[in-house]
Design a protein that fits this description.
Blueprint lengths: L5 H12 L6 H10 L6 H14 L2 E6 L2 E6 L9 E5 L5 E4 L2 H14 L9 E4 L2 H4 L3
Parallel strand pairs: 3-5
Antiparallel strand pairs: 1-2, 3-4
């Protein structure tokens, strides 16, 4: 049985309203600063459940494991690009990458899982700061 607690509702709200990625530590700090006590293990368990549901995406960054709200809709039919500097997660439709995935399937007998594929690099905004 899954219990919906005030903590879980606040975690969901924080994820949905966050721009970019957050760490479990960010979530704990935000809730604590807002007057709600929450354990780090509680946050990780809930994030794991949300990952299984496909509601959040997890990716590695210089800060460790980061999470971003994927939305209530299916997040599997486009490519995901994450900026290694600011953590922005971009959803991209790209015919060239579609053709590359077709090539990989036809020539190498391998199907790319778009829902779990993340391209890492630097976004235009961060690149222009150099």
């Amino acid at each position: 049985m899954v219990y919906n607690t005030k903590q879980k509702k606040l975690i969901l709200e924080y994820l949905k309203n966050s721009k970019g990625h957050v760490t479990a530590g960010d979530i704990v700090k935000h809730l604590t600063d807002s007057g709600t006590k929450v354990g780090t293990s509680t946050v990780y368990r809930f994030l794991d459940r949300l990952l299984e549901e496909g509601s959040v995406r997890r990716f590695a960054s210089s800060e460790g494991a980061c999470y971003q709200w994927a939305g209530d809709k299916e997040c599997k039919n486009h490519y995901h690009f994450v900026c290694s500097r600011c953590g922005a997660l971009l959803h991209v439709d790209c015919g060239e990458l579609d053709r590359a995935c077709e090539h990989i399937y036809k020539e190498h007998n391998f199907t790319v899982d778009l829902g779990n594929t993340v391209f890492c690099g630097v976004c235009e905004k961060c690149a222009s700061k150099r």
